[in-house]
Amino acid sequence: MEISEKLLCLFSAEVTDDDDRYVVEVPRREVETGSVQSGDTYRVALIAAEGESDESESGSSGTPSEPQPPVEEGEIRYVEVEDIGKQGDGIARVERGYVIIVPGAEIGERVKIEVTEVKSNFAVGEIIEE
Predict the structure, then answer these.
(1) Measured between alpha carbons, how far is 21 from 31 in angstroms, rounded to an integer?
(2) CB–CB of 71/79 below 8 Å?
(3) Of the candidates 27, 91, 104, 127, which lies 20 to 30 Å from 54 by C-alpha distance?
(4) Which residue in 90, 96, 88 sits closest to 124, CA to CA?
(5) For the stretch 10-47, what's the b/e string if a residue is b when 16 or more beta carbons lie within 10 angstroms of its beta carbon?
(6) pLDDT of 77-129, one tens digit each?
(7) β-strands 99-102, 110-118 pairing
(8) What's the pLDDT at 46?
(9) pLDDT score recorded for residue 58
(10) How far apart, in whole angstroms, are the C-alpha atoms of residue 74 and residue 50?
């Protein structure tokens, strides 16, 4: 799947029924970090969640008991550096407080990164655009 360079944010959300309409909620952090602005209009693309299909799943391939990292290796996204780690690397937090280490970034910077390594409790992202 090709992802547009115009992608502002990427998150998972549930479609909920609200009387005469259906709602997809944008996480507060996407507005607070400046990815999107309240009141503006955006194009929305919906992609089926991984593992969701009409095929039946059986045996040991059930739902994992621990949440999976909210990023994937090779993923491109904008992040805001909130802190500096003990080794001087930038620290950004995304969904559920998941940490992305961004070497060479400074506190307060909003940078475009490519995720280069993903672990269960953190990821590493390389700056591709400041």
Answers:
(1) 22
(2) no
(3) 27
(4) 90
(5) beeeeeeeeeeeeeeeebebbeebebeeeeeeeeeeee
(6) 999 999 999 889 999 999 888 999 999 999 999 999 999 999 988 999 999 98
(7) unpaired
(8) 78
(9) 44
(10) 16
